[in-house]
Design brief:
The protein is mostly beta strands. About 10% of the residues lie in helices and about 20% in strands. The mean pLDDT is about 80.
Length: about 80
């Protein structure tokens, strides 16, 4: 799927100054990375059902499989 078109049909595209022409995505598999406040981490578990929302779609919920791993942010590891 084309997410963004950065050149119009008929535009001249050169190799001397390479620039993206389109942004593509494979929407069959998406990954969501989310920050969870440490006060809420205990309320979620591996394998728990999850969903994602997007402001552009109002209250619509998109099923997103389940939580399959947890990873601390690099800055959190540096503080330990």
């Amino acid at each position: 799927m084309i997410l963004r078109r950065l050149a119009e049909v008929g535009s001249i595209v050169t190799l001397t100054v390479p620039a993206p022409v389109v942004t593509l995505a494979d929407l069959r598999r998406l990954e969501v990375r989310a920050e969870v406040d440490e006060a809420d981490v205990a309320a979620i578990a591996l394998g728990q059902a999850a969903y994602a929302t997007a402001d552009a779609y109002g209250d619509r919920r998109f099923p997103s499989g389940s939580r399959d791993h947890t990873r601390a942010r690099p800055q959190d590891r540096a503080r330990r």
